[in-house]
Amino acid sequence: MNLAYDDLGSGQPVLLVHGHPFDRSMWRPQAEHLAKTGYRVVTPDLRGYGTSPTQDQKTGLDVFADDLVELADHLQLASFVLGGLSMGGQIVMQLVRDHPGRVEALLLADTFAGLDTPQAKQARYDTADRITEEGMEQYAEELLPKMISKHTRATRPDVETHVRRMMRNAPKEGAAAALRGRAERPDYTPTLKHIDVPTLVVVGSEDEFTPVSDAELIQREIGPSTLVVIEGAGHLPNLEREAKFNDALTTFLTSSGATS
């Protein structure tokens, strides 16, 4: 198993998947909170992110999903709660499609089920080439104002510092490989109606990348689902408003029967 990961607590297993261009520290507030309340929380660095290596030029979301199942098998987790944010949420949708029966409940945060426009798809390829050439620093500075809300930037310098550090430190080769693979992902929208496990859909009210309307579409398509909008948060409500996010997640896990 080549993925670096943290494994906290004991009880019902919860596997949390970070977004791009982040690492497993993105989930630290949730991992620590859930570990204290009777859950076992596994937070990996995806292939090519954090301290997980890659040799890929292009990493498909199916490859990320297979990696996560391999990690679950390594940890002897026959079934688990699975959550992901942004690209992590798309990997979650891929995993549920490719590996039915493994997941007991889902968290889909600030993510998008559909395909990119042709322009957005090309932008992923172009950005991959750019960061391979230039590195992550300028890219991180351009992304930062869109990742977190204006209110968060004004009131939570700790969050801004953490988000900037994750993005600047992301290995450029892994980030570029993921962008190329993500550009070629399938449309997950038709598969949402087949999801039959309890699902929590969360989105920040100020999310510029995946607005509330994207979350509402996912929630409408998945039968057993609940939508929570985190007011004042941008694309990373789990960091920007961690107490509200943790409350929503804990309430969901309790009500869904995914208890330790």
TrEMBL record:
SUPFAM superfamilies: alpha/beta-Hydrolases
Organism lineage string: Bacteria, Bacillati, Actinomycetota, Actinomycetes, Pseudonocardiales
Top-level taxon in the UniProt lineage: Bacteria
Residue ranges annotated for the AB hydrolase-1 domain, each copy included: 13-241
Pfam families in UniProt: Abhydrolase_1 (PF00561)
Keyword NAD among UniProt keywords: no
Species, as recorded: Amycolatopsis plumensis
Protein keywords: Hydrolase
Alphabetical list of InterPro entries matching this protein: AB_hydrolase_1, AB_hydrolase_fold, AB_hydrolase_sf, Epox_hydrolase-like
GO MF terms held by the record: hydrolase activity
Protein name per its UniProtKB record: Alpha/beta fold hydrolase
Presence of keyword Hydrolase: yes
